[in-house]
Each structure stands twice: as structure tokens, then as C-alpha cells.
Amino acid sequence: MTGPTLLAREIDEIPEAAARLLDRGQGSIRDVARHLRRRDPAMMVTVARGSSDHAATVLAYACGQASGIVPASYPPSLASLHAQRPRVAGQVAVAISQSGRSTDLIASARALRSGGAALVVLTNTPDAPLAREAELVIDIHAGPERAVAATKSFVNSVLAGALLLGHWLDDPSLLASLQGLPDTLRAALSTPMPELARSLAMDDRLLVLGRGPSLGVAEEIALKAMELCGIPALAYSTAELRHGPLQVIRDGHPVYDLTRGPALADTVPLRMPFGAGLHSVSDALLDLVPAYVALEAASRARGLDPDAPDRLRKETVTR
Questions:
Q1: Nearest to 225, CA basis, from 298, 146, 288
Q2: pLDDT tens per residue, range 18-61
Q3: Checking DSSP bridges between strand 253-257 and strand 43-47, what pairing results, if any?
Q4: Distance from the CA of 132 to the CA of which of 108, 110, 220, 298 falls in 20 to 30 A?
Q5: What Cα–Cα distance (Å) separates residue 244 from each residue in 2, 236, 240?
Q6: How high is the pLDDT of residue 273?
Q7: What distance in Å separates the CA atoms of residue 319 and residue 306, rounded to the nearest whole number?
Q8: From residue 289, how far is each of 21, 85, 265 by CA, in Å?
Q9: Which phi and psi (to 5°) does residue 9 adopt?
């Protein structure tokens, strides 16, 4: 493989994509936020798959931390396979999808809206079938993304959702942390992570720990380790780890801990992530982007194609 991969180029475009969303998207996001304030829901239901579901995890925790709103994740198969009619009158549903074409997400969006929820869709394809089910659509402005593994679209999904929360819930600390994010993302991208890259290139397993908004980023890193490096990887809450999984974490197991907690016995702690102390959501994204760089390098070091894992496709359609 000669020259930078598509994935490497798209990772490098993350700060530019974030700046584009901040510049072009905040007007429509404010409009959606005003609608949600008028509705004043008690619950925010998210529906997504894969990387988009990890973005939803970040937003669920951020929403709960900033308000009394209860976040919940809706299982798409309840609508697509079991034809459930959810009772969500007066609530808010947020569907997140880069392509907006998966039939189970479309069925879920239709069911949630029919059940009385205000449906907000975050997507990189605002004319997709999923967006046509919604009364409120947010274009995440990530730009074209051709590598199979989603990177800049994941970051912009989190950023778009965080901007929505900041305006909807009137959270000035969250909004302030997001305005300068493109510059801090550039700094994070240039932060080398040799220990993580070496572990991803050589080890046969990985544990990623998070809590709160960083749990969604931990899930995203673990997914990318499986997609790009072909190694089994797990993401856990540091609290859930002690409810059973800790029993198998031994014999030098590599651990990437986004919570910056004390090292676990019998593990190899990887270098602490970037983190800037801005806000739990912003810091989670800043911890993520240098990990993307390490993942792309490790994939190539393993002799794999980071642009096109052989068993995966860019658009995944499930029922």
C-alpha cells in the first residue's frame, strides 16, 4: 500500500469536519433545541446501531448529567421484528445513523414517532429514508466518508448531539468546551500514542475502560480494534468490570483506561489518553482521535487493509 490510506486521510479531516459543523450546523441545531424545550420531555430515547450507538451512549450520559431527563436506548428489533407500538407520547427520540438506510432503524423511527415521540435524526445523509421519517433533522456535516470504519462521522455525530444538548438544556460549560474543539482536536491528532499502537499491532486482546460519556468512546475504540486490527476487544464500565469480568483480566492483559483510574493488577496499562479537562464529552473525543491514529497504524502493521476490512461493508443494513 503506497501513500496514506483513505482512513488516515479521513482521520486527518476530523478537525475540519468539526469546524464545518460548528460553522454551518448550529443554526438548525438551535431550531431543534427550541422545539425540544417547548416539549419539555421527561425521557430521551435513542436508537442506533454500531458506531452510531456508541455516539448515542455518549449523549445519553451527557443528557443525564446535565438534566433530570431519563435516557434510554431503544432496541431496534422491537419495531422491526416484533412490531412493538411504543408508548412514548410527549417524549423525545433521537435516531443516529451515518447513512440513514438500515431498515430496522427506519422501522424504529416510524414506531417511535407513531407512538407520540418528537423524532430527531442525526445523519450524514439528510435526504436518506430515515431522515424522511423525522420531523427534525440535523445534518452532521461530516462530508464524504469512504473508508469502511467510521471516524469523522462518529466524531461529528457526538459533536452534533452535544451541541443539541447544550442549546436545549442551556448548558454553557458544554457549549464553551465545544466551540474551540477543532483546534484541540488538531493538537490531539498530533499526540503520539506508541504504547497503544504497539499493543494493537502485537497483542491478541484489548480491554477499554470508560464511565459516563467516555464509556461510549471506550465502546467505539473496542469496535475499531476488532474492525481494523482483527483482535478481540471489550469495552466495560469501570464499575461493571467488578461485577464479574475482572476475574478473567490477568496475565498482562493490555488495558486502555479512559477514566485515568489506578492500574489494575495483572494488566499492562497503556499510556494515559490526551484529555484536556474541558468537559466530559469534549475530553472523551480528545481521547479518541489519537487512538484512531494508533488503530490505523496498527492495522497496517498487521498487514491488513484499514480502508476495507474483508468481511465488512461501509453501509450495514439489518432487520
A1: 298
A2: 999 999 999 999 999 999 999 999 999 999 999 999 999 999 99
A3: unpaired
A4: 220
A5: 45, 11, 8
A6: 66
A7: 27
A8: 17, 39, 27
A9: -65, -40
Counting beta carbons within 10 angstroms of the beta carbon of residue 310, is it exposed (0 to 12), middle (13 to 18) or buried (19 or more)? Answer: exposed
**Dihedral (C-alpha) 167, 168, 173, 176: value to the nearest 10 degrees?**
-20
Query: How big, in percent rounded to 5, are the helix, strand and coil portions of the chain?
Result: 50, 15, 35
What is the phi/psi pair of residue 189, to 5°? Answer: -60, -30
And the C-alpha cell for 276?
484536556
CB of 213 within 8 A of CB of 61? yes
**pLDDT given at position 260:** 84
Cell of 285: 473525543
The pLDDT of residue 9 is 98
Residue indicated by cell numbers 490510506? 5
Is residue 144 classed exposed, middle or buried when 0-12, 13-18 and 19+ CB atoms within 10 A define those classes? exposed
- Measured CA to CA, the distance from residue 226 to residue 249 in angstroms comes to 18
- Where does the chain have alpha helices with state H? 6-12, 14-24, 26-39, 50-66, 77-80, 103-114, 129-132, 152-168, 172-179, 181-189, 194-202, 213-229, 280-301
Averaged pLDDT, groups of 10, the chain, 319 residues long: 87 98 97 96 97 98 97 96 96 95 95 97 96 96 95 98 98 95 95 91 95 97 97 94 84 90 82 78 95 97 93 72
d(CA 17, CA 143): 7
Q: Judging by beta carbons within 10 Å of its beta carbon (0-12, 13-18, 19+), is residue 239 exposed, middle or buried?
A: exposed
Q: Report pTM.
A: 0.95
- The string over 194-206, giving b where at least 16 C-beta atoms fall within 10 Å of a residue's C-beta and e elsewhere, is ebbbbbbbebebb
Residue 112 CB neighbours (<10 A): 27
| Angle formed at CA 296 by CA 184 and CA 266, multiple of 5 degrees | 90
